Amino acid sequence: MKIKDVNILVAGDLHCPFDLAEEKKGLSYLKFLKNVYKKFECSKVIFIGDVIDNHFSSYHETSADGLGGADELNVAVKRLQKYYKAFPEAVVIIGNHDRMIMRKAQTSAIPSKWIKSYKEVLEVPKWEFTERYVFNDIQFIHGEGGQASTKARADMMNTISGHYHTLAYTQHFVGAKYRVFGMQVGCGIDFKTYAMAYAKYGKKPAIGCGVILNGKTPLNILMEL
Questions:
Q1: Which residues are within 8 A (CB) of 1 and not within 5 positions of it... i.e. 6 or more apart?
Q2: CA pair distance 152, 184, nearest whole angstrom
Q3: Model confidence, pTM
């Protein structure tokens, strides 16, 4: 398949098990992604990071009434299996919440040999986990280092990222001899869950995803709420 024939679905932060999953109210982020994938005839899927939340292990305050570690992980894996069934082959950018346990292991001086891989723990054997992914001169990163627009200008490279739940945009930068874009894809979180309480007084999240047409043209798709 030629690059020009590839349409890419870029899913935003999921934070399972705190993803938007109110199927009865028509607010299922997974269903939204499946519809976008079909509508734009996508053949490649990239998750932009934070596919799980790991709230129980946060470096910030956690909910005293929330799920314990084992329970949260089990529910997260169960939720994630639905995405895996829908998109059995995908690239997953490792986000700051995904690597939370790895960071705790480093803090505790536990050698990496003791730690299972992401695909083993999350039971998604065909997914490819990576810190950064490049396709057709577009870099896909999670975005802890700053917004996509900032990174695109710094690297002079088309950049797509997540991390910032309230942002969904594409900004183009054009110079005498270059043209690059920065895209924030939005997210798929459930804003009402206890894990998102830290942001309840801030802006509401931008529920959406990104699509790259013909391997190069960025589109922001926002979910009807």
A1: 43
A2: 11
A3: 0.93
